Amino acid sequence: MRVVARSLLALVGLAALPRLSGAPSADDIQKELQTGQYTEAIADAQTAVQATPREEVLHILLTQALLTVGRSSDASAAAAAGLTHIPMSIRLRWIGREAALESGQADLAARLTAEVRESVSSRPYLYRDAAARVALLVGADPKEVMDKVLGPAQQVNPTPREVFLAKGELALAKHDFDLAAKSYQEGLKHFSDDPDFHLGLARAYASGDQAAMVAEIEAALKINPRHLPSLLLLADQKIDAEDYPAAEKRLDQVLAVNPWRPEAWGYKAILAHLNSDLAGEKTAHDNALRFWPSNPLVDWLIGQKLAEKYRFAEAATAQRQALRFDASYLPAKEELANDLLRLGQEKEGWQLAEEVHAKDEYDVEAYNLATLHDTMVKYATLANDDFVIRMTTPEAAVYGHRAAELLGRARRTLTAKYGVELEKPTYVEIFGDQKDFAVRTFGMPDIGGFLGVCFGRVVTANGPAANAAQPTNWETVLWHEFCHVVTLQMTQNKMPRWLSEGISVYEESQADPSWGMHVNRRYREMILDGDLTPVGELSAAFLLPRSPEYLQFAYLESSLVVEFIVNRYGLEQLKGILHDVGAGMEINQAIAIHTEPMPALEKDFAAYATGRAEQLAPKLDWDKPKPDLLEPGAETKLANWVKGHPENDWGLRMRSRELIQAKKWPEAQALLLHFIALYPTQIGADSAYLQLAVVDRALGQADAERAALTKLAELDDNAADAYLRLTELAATAGDWAAEKQAAEKFLAVNPLVALPYRSLAEAEEKLGDDGGAIAADRTQLLLSPANPAEVHYQLARLLHRSHDPEARRQVLQALEDAPRYRDALALLLEINSTPSALQ
């Protein structure tokens, strides 16, 4: 958890020394440090130093051991004593610098730093060993360190512990997590019992694979139960999961070893801040800076964790404090850039990001942000009093107005419902490339699984183009994220994640019954199998889900909790919880005031959720065939089992597929109608409604097919193929309102194809809305329609009817594409014969 300089001070080339006069060896002392025997390591190092006072490595180990337990003044004295015996030692000066900083001796630290730089520049030939060069080049260009120092060092010694650690640390500091993981994994092949490598790998995994991160922390603590960096990282993880008592426990373990570890007190300050304990926060902050009053690491750490809690304004204040301590401290400048961008303060945010990139071109996150800025300056901006919406220019032309209209409706609905006055404007950024969204949101391009993110006043979202491989209803995404805008501002970003997500999912379904998440067969099974997370631990379910499926289940469960609170206690009580949390009250206390104490709520909610699960198709047989029935050769037994379970979900699905494959349409139709009667809310790719529509179409029963697809469209917000087919069936039936509705539903999933706009234009015209039809035809022309001449002609016809002189240009474009287009020629003659055309 330390910055690069602290981590690299360990790179001291701890060569094994022979045991002299019975004194402990360097290997013995190093092993004691690695296994947490710090008192023994100090005693043995002191003995060894007395026996062989001119052995540099022993002085370094003694200084490290003293620093580990917080005896920074003694560590500084130990380094100084070493220098009396080895006056040319660069490594002792470097670790002495760290000890001087931590003991509040800023002048000594500055002097030692100057001596290091002077020695290297004037007598480089004296410092050729790899470990010394690594330590000396802290602060140099990291890519040069990698290429010119660590590479050659590894050629001299293919398996140096220090080089593996240095490469990993540098990569972590520059947000190159893949490279960091590779370095630590390579190191573990040679140093499997070294907790520092497990810790490094855990840190490399921290931004992605949380389960793997925890496993590596546990591996480090198995080797050394008192490994302070691992305990700190575990406390960090517990804070993320909102398990604050567990975080306190880990921090107390750290302070039992080192009572003045700055990061431990920094985390204590964070916990106090989150608990609105101002006095406790000040005490912890003062303790963190007790011996090094201008240590930028402390406020950088506090700001970083507050940002992860979406407390960006407070985070930015902390980063500004870190920069007041050290204006050149790039981690704080980079974090401040992100905080400001998430607060909508873009001018300063982008400027700081560029400054970081200019100073450190190897920093992956800074490079990503600089590149993204170059992309986003080309975006179109749609603005009004309430919103600033940024999108790629082509997408803005196609559906920008739809996004603006939807967001306006969401704002009117949700601000009135929750009684909140929002800060204006809300910034909404819709990305056409998933990687651009990930960089804007997380700083890194390879983070998937998110459709949108809200920071309070700024929303980022993947647009339809970014989701082309897996189309998603973008309208539900924007509604969901704008609901976060309302609740986060209402609570000043102080609400737990589960409640924030739960309200947003709940409000989706309130806006449209087909939106949001609903109990389906898989979620029913998970609820009844006991997979519900206790409400008080729901935020952890988002941090460490067992799988992507369980992450989605956490969203569903959170929405059910909100539904339960609203149904049992009313919306006003939910709003009361939000108000109290925003005022600084702990969530469980707020819930207890407005509903019931958490233990009772958890019990009652579990019963509620179980009831919801049991209400799903209660007459359906939900048993599954035993695994042996699914093995090859058991087909007859399986068929007999299916016959014996005529109303079984699994059997009905299997039997319907078989009948369709065999084209036994009447039998399939009867079976599917029976299945739907038992389970009328099923949606998804294997929905019985979709199968029934196929069967109805095969039987030539258009009305029945349309009825099946209409019901599906009422239930499913992502059934694009069904919506498209509905436009055809509705047009054939002359039901223009239904055709328009189906086209609109399709456009909520994918507004970037021309065909639904053709249906929309037709329906609008038939319903007497020529303006709507004209707009739909114009949009078609932006999307390379299959027959552009026809679209130009239809648009010309509508414009002519509206007495718009543009009609002549549009009909000429139709004739340019199709010179023998008779209807277009006739329209041109008609246009030319009008008085306005002749003028």
How does this structure look, described?
The chain has 839 residues and is mostly helical. Among the domains are: 139 residues, Alpha Horseshoe (Serine Threonine Protein Phosphatase 5, Tetratricopeptide repeat), CATH 1.25.40; 112 residues, 3-Layer(aba) Sandwich (Glutaredoxin), CATH 3.40.30; 101 residues, no CATH class; 100 residues, Serine Threonine Protein Phosphatase 5, Tetratricopeptide repeat (Alpha Horseshoe). 68% of the residues lie in helices and 3% in strands. Strands 1-2-3-5-4 form a five-stranded mixed β-sheet. α4 runs parallel beside α6 and α23 crosses α25. The longest helix has 26 residues. The N terminus is likely disordered.
Helical content, roughly?
A: 55-70%
What do we call the CATH homologous superfamily of the domain at 1-139?
Tetratricopeptide repeat domain
Uncertain segments: 1-20, 127-140
Distinct helical segment count: 45
CATH class of the domain at 1-139: Mainly Alpha
Gross geometry:
globular
- Which strand-content bin applies to the residues? under 5%
Oligomer: single chain
Largest sheet: 5 strands, mixed
Alpha-carbon distance between the two ends:
78 Å
Summed over residues and divided by their number, the pLDDT gives a mean of 89
Strand order of the largest sheet: 1-2-3-5-4
The radius of gyration is 33 Å
Classify the fold: give the CATH topology of the domain at 1-139. Answer: Serine Threonine Protein Phosphatase 5, Tetratricopeptide repeat
Class by SSE composition: mainly alpha
CATH architecture descriptor text of the domain at 1-139: Alpha Horseshoe
User: What is the number of E strands?
Assistant: 5
